[in-house]
Amino acid sequence: MIKTAPSILAANYITLGDDIKKIEDAGADYLHIDIMDGHFVPNMSFGPGFVSAIHPVSKSVLDVHLMITEPERYIKQFAEAGADIITIHTESTADPEKVIDDIISLGVKAGISVKPATPVEEIYRLLDKVSMVLIMTVEPGFGGQSLIPATLDKITPLYNEIKRRGLEVDIEVDGGVTADNVHELTSRGANVIVAGSAVFKAKDPAAVLAEFKK
Ligand code: DX5
Ligand code: ZN
Hints:
The chain has about 210 residues and is of the alpha/beta class. It is about 30% helix and about 20% strand.
């Protein structure tokens, strides 16, 4: 089953409560919340307080994507804020396995992400622990970029490895996803589709989400 995860980085922050309701009525499964620290990536966005504010007004799975250095410093705060899934970057910490264990011990699902230049095989040792692998299809840091085609080559090998081990691990893709390229991603094995601009800037977000799920 394909799940959609609109990235609220591209939403209107002034009308966010209404926009979340609209996007959920339109069929969103997850809300993807991009956390950036101005260090791991050259941009800043939201903190745990933002997730706490969204938690009571959303009925979606809160999919928190941490683009921060040493995420171990903040996972407890994001768990308490109401995150359902916390995804960290393998490049952001000395011991991703320990951080994954700590996320799970907080009662939250854990995801692991790779930037475009990081081989996906680097995270295979974590597949038995995580609920999701996030393949970045752009350089993390900004919405509105174009998908990097070479990143697609990671999806099928990862999908095959997950099946070979008999695991239930979701494959999420994030960055530059549109109604025009989404089927290339899902046909390769991606099943959680993040999209910011393509959803929030669309005239008819429900039609875009429906196209993603086809
Ligand atoms: C980029 C973020 C993405 C971003 C996607 O660093 O991780 O989630 O919001 O935005 P679009 O879909 O506009 O590329
Ligand atoms: Zn993201």
